[in-house]
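ugh ok fine here u go
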Amino acid sequence: NPKKVRPNTYAIDKTEIEPYLKQPERLFTEVGVRPQTKNGEPTGAYILTGMKSDAFLRKIGLRDGDVILKVNGQNPMNLMSIISNPNIHDIHVEYQRGGRMQRLHLTLQE
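structure:
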């Protein structure tokens, strides 16, 4: 399980995300994701919905209704290509909760 090392900072064994790299669709069996829109247009952000109680994203502090804005400075839909990079050691997630900007830092450990 991810280990909370500081507020909004978790250490994760890389083997914990391997199942999601091998089968990315598995993540979407644990949580719904829908595009955020403003005036009927997509903003590029995604809202988490219907998250299961044992979902991986819940274990790292995310909740239903959180709006994922960026992952390592990129569009959240690039998540799988970001985390599948074998040289990646850190993942930074920018999100909004209740209208307030939040940051989440994940350190991947071998």
